[in-house]
Design brief:
Order of helices and strands: HHHHHHHHHHHHHHHHHHEE
Strand order of the largest sheet: 1-2
Number of helices: 18
Strand content: under 5%
Oligomer: single chain
Largest sheet: 2 strands, antiparallel
Shape: elongated
Number of strands: 2
Structural class: mainly alpha
Radius of gyration: 28 Å
């Protein structure tokens, strides 16, 4: 009887699909496959939904059912389920917003959200004629890389370990590039660089950290070669690490990491006396990053200036009057608040 009601028209099946504890996982999966969007949404909103049913909704469900699944905070959604939802509906702003509202997102999914949002914005400004395709693509790439650096720094602060899962996901997505790794270093953070070396070389975290700390030695050069990073960029990474040692980590715990002009200019000074086939493009990249850092710094200063001008004025009546006490001896005057 319950199975028959669950397979009926949606105005009859929805109460059963959303509440009945007698339906098995297999029956719920079948109802997702054969039901309309109302039936799918009713199943997606069930508390404690099994992972297999959540996967079927993510893989087969209509847009509204996927949104219903995303907002169902009483159901744990595994990383593959969230990834499939983004793969199908990543260009949809409401789907992205519903997924982002969840508080249990792994770093890889947050990275995919950043990429999907950047791609959507790039497509919008290009179609509107506000930017050329080349400029929109560069802006999209810079936005994605900045988001990844921030996510990696957050992983280190919250989990206390290197963002190895995030780096592995980026490598699978072919987004783990030397430019991204260099941006992380120039943002005052080594966690992304160290995690990338662990992933690419197969070495443990403690061993990698030791080699990175001694970046001028032969051990670091051997680790870099084993990671199969571009040989011509070894002086660039060494210069960035040297700048970090000179200026220290620029951002503090809990503060959003961003490109540092000090680190970029220190790296540029170290590379000025060098020459190589790969350094020309790297120098151009560093100059673009310096310009980006300058824009970010100018925006922050403008925001602070606007906030200071909009601050409520101090009321004169709220200022405590000064009390002046004149002692007997001439020239002795005491002022107390």
């Amino acid at each position: 009887m319950i199975s028959a009601l669950a397979s009926d028209q949606s105005d009859i099946s929805v109460p059963v699909l959303s509440r009945s504890p007698l339906l098995s996982e297999a029956e719920l999966c079948d109802c997702v496959a054969i039901g309309d969007v109302y039936a799918q949404a009713a199943i997606a909103l069930r508390p404690g939904l099994p992972e297999s049913v959540a996967w079927v909704i993510a893989d087969w469900g209509e847009r509204e059912a996927v949104i219903s699944l995303a907002v169902n905070l009483c159901t744990y959604l595994a990383e593959p389920v969230l990834g499939r939802m983004l793969a199908r509906y990543g260009e949809d702003g409401e789907v992205r917003e519903a997924i982002l509202a969840r508080g249990d997102l792994p770093a890889s999914i947050r990275s995919d959200l950043v990429s999907a949002t950047a791609d959507a914005l790039s497509a919008f400004v290009t179609s509107a004629g506000w930017m050329t395709a080349e400029r929109a693509g560069r802006t999209c790439r810079e936005t994605r890389e900045s988001g990844v650096v921030e996510i990696a720094a957050g992983e280190l602060q919250v989990e206390g370990s290197l963002p190895l899962g995030l780096v592995r996901h980026l490598r699978q997505q072919e987004q783990l590039t030397p430019a991204l790794i260099l941006r992380g270093l120039l943002s005052g953070n080594r966690s992304l660089f160290e995690a990338a070396l662990c992933e690419l070389s197969g070495q443990g975290a403690e061993r990698v950290r030791g080699f990175v700390a001694a970046w001028s030695g032969a051990g670091f050069a051997a680790l870099y070669t084993r990671a199969n990073l571009p040989p011509g960029l070894l002086p660039v990474f060494r210069a960035a690490l040297a700048a970090q040692d000179d200026y220290g980590l620029i951002y503090a715990a809990g503060q959003r990491p961003q490109l540092s002009k000090l680190l970029i200019e220190g790296t540029l000074r170290a590379l000025d006396a060098m020459a190589g086939p790969d350094l020309g493009r790297v120098m151009a990249l560093l100059h673009r990053l310096r310009a980006e850092a300058a824009r970010t710094e100018a925006r922050a200063m403008s925001t602070d200036l606007i906030a200071s001008t909009l601050a409520p004025p101090v009321e004169i009546s709220s200022v405590a009057p000064l009390e002046i006490e004149i002692e007997q001896e001439p020239g002795n005057i005491a002022i107390a608040a």
